[in-house]
C-alpha cells in the first residue's frame, strides 16, 4: 500500500477480494468527463460502449426532480474539492444497486494548467472481510489527512495575509505549480513552519519562503 493520498489514487489496483475501483477526470469548463475502463466496467459498460456525461451520471443515480438538483450539488461539491470524500448509492447499467465511495484528489494539479478534477470511485457494495474493509478505510484515511493539512494551511495563510480562504488556496496552488510539488506537500510545510514559530512572531516572512519554494533556515 502506498504512503500518500496521490499514490493511493494513481496506483490503486484491486487485489482479489478487494473493492473494485475506477478513475475519472472532470473538465468543468467543458462539462466533459473521462472514465477509465475499470470505471466503465464498474458502471456496467464495456470499454468504449458509452461516452460519459453528467446526464449519464444522473441517470445512474436515478436522479429526477428534487433529487436531480441535490445530486448535481453533490457532484459540484465533490469535483470542486469542497466535499472530496462522499458515499453515494447508484445503479449500474444492469440495474444493480451499488454503494460507492467517491474520492476527489484535492492535492493534484493538472500540469497543463487546465481546470480538471481527478478522482476515483470505489465500489464497496460487496466488500466482505476485515482485510478488504481495511483497504477502503485506509484510502479514506489518507485522503482525510491530505484534506486536513490543506485546510489548516488555508487558514494559516488567510489569517497571516488577511485574505479569503479561496485566495489562500490559490496561493497554495500557485506555489505548487511553481515548485512542481504537490499542494499537500506545500500545505504540510506551511503548517510545520507555523507550528515552529514562537508566539507573537510575524509568520509572513517564514511563510513567504515556503510559498516561494525556499527552505526556511
Automatic annotation (TrEMBL):
Domain of life of the source: Bacteria
SMART domains for the chain: ANTAR
GO molecular function: RNA binding
CDD domains, sorted: PAS
Residues in ANTAR domain copies: 130-191
Protein name (database record): ANTAR domain-containing protein
Organism: Cellulosimicrobium funkei
Top-level taxonomy: Bacteria, Bacillati, Actinomycetota, Actinomycetes, Micrococcales
